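Give me structure tokens for this 209-residue protein.
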Amino acid sequence: MKHHYPHFTNVNLSEWRWPSFSPREIACKGTGELLVDDHALDKLQSLRNALGKPLILTSAYRSELHNKRVGGAKNSRHMQGDAFDVRMDNHDPHEFEAAARAVGFTGFGYYPKSGFMHIDTGPARSWGAPWSKTATGWAAESARQPESVREDREAQAAAGAGVAGAVAVAAEHLPVASSLLGNLAPAAQLVAVIVAALFIGYLLWKRTR
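Here you go.
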């Protein structure tokens, strides 16, 4: 059954039964006029459900006037409301076509250079050059390897353990160090503390490289 609306805003949304598509998506892009083909939209919704991902429509219904403006075929199925142009950006074209045929679409137009496929429920036919199949599948992306210890949590944990160990050792020998420093003049004590701090800082820096 088909329903004609002067404008897609005239649709009673409570009667619209295709949840993945809005009247605006299906309406003529040039005039807003809408021709709903229940049979074709049922198949479009079934295709959306089967693929489990959005269908990006660049063209659905076209008024006769708009079809002329965009250079559509004289007897384009878009004017019948049972044709849809779907972007392939988020689909494998071969899987998409197989799923479209499975739910009942019979007309296929291939536009790989433009990145979309035409599907309709008209007579069985096809045109254009189909997407080529690659000889091998896409290579799996390997896990990113850390470039330095700062990006490696395990290395960071190990470095942290090393720092903790160094602090523990320093604390263990703190009394001895204090007694040795006590025998030095105040100025010499200050120099010794600075040198020791710089040395420990250097060791920690090397550990985290």
